[in-house]
Amino acid sequence: MTAGESPYTLDQLRGFVAVAEEGHFGRAAARLRMTQPPLSRQVQRLEHAIGFRLFDRTASGAALTPAGRVFLEEARRLFTLVDTAPLRAQRVAAGTAGSIRIGFTAVSALTVLGHWIAVAAAELPGVDLVLSEMVTHAQLDALLAGEIEVGLVRQVPRSDVLDSRLVSTDSLVLAAPRDHLLTRLGRAPRLADIAEHDVVTYSPSEAWYFYELVVAAFKHARVNPRYVQHISQVHTVAAVVNAGLGVALVPSSAATLRLSNLVFLDIDGIPEDSVELHAAWRVRHGNPALGRLLEKV
Fold it and tell me: What was the pLDDT predicted at 150?
């Protein structure tokens, strides 16, 4: 027997189960449409292979030993797997079963990810979603390494390896403490107004998409704000603003965050739909369930 090879065969297991259920070698042989001597040899070979007795032979038949009773439970479980394996494999091949490893940014969990989860639950109930929260660059690394299969990311570099689709757009809005001066202007604040106050912004390494978006917006307005913090996640930026440490430019979807001291204001002069969210996946992902999910969302 080579390494990894089973010490027994399915035919031997079927013979064992038949004898166990019938309690008699002769009746088991008739059930299997074979003669008794070959069946007896099958069971003997099985006992020899596993190293313990499965039956106590008596004049009236065969009774399971304690070890045989345990072995019977495991044999039945094995046959259940054997019987269901083709159907399970067919479902995986058709994309109606299996799993999808999804990466997502914190804010996408408030918008697109929720829709994906609802669609999968309703239309692909046999597919498990394995979720991992990551910033965009970590998702792109994970996609290339095969650690996730699809990511909800802010920007996708041109690549022959990755495919992508725009799934959502937002506008930049102002997040400010409820009693801040910018909330009492009587009009939508301009970037020049915002630049006169402390601005909480994004980490250039961990949240480079939003960092560049904010820097470009102020540069286009020809003003230089006072940056007081550099943070990697939008929801953390909102929490810092809620604590009164400044104001921030955030995607409009962040308005779903209900924080007691936080208000969101439109910004005069900011173009709409400037914040993009993309779904990205490997061109050759090999997961039928992912293909089905992308079709449905």
Answer: 96
DSSP 129-145: EEEEE--HHHHHHHHHH
- Cα gap 114→136, rounded to integer Å: 18
3-state DSSP of 109-125: HHCHHHHHHHHHHHHCC
Residue type at 204 in one-letter notation: P
Question: What domains, with CATH codes, occur in the chain?
Answer: 10-94 (1.10.10.10), 98-169+276-296 (3.40.190.10), 172-270 (3.40.190.10)
Give the contacts of 292 (CB within 8 A, at least 6 positions apart).
94, 95, 96, 124, 127
Give how far Cα 181 sits from Cα of 225, 226, 246, Å: 16, 16, 11
Quote the pTM value. 0.68
DSSP category for residue 270: P
| pLDDT tops 50 at residue 3 | no
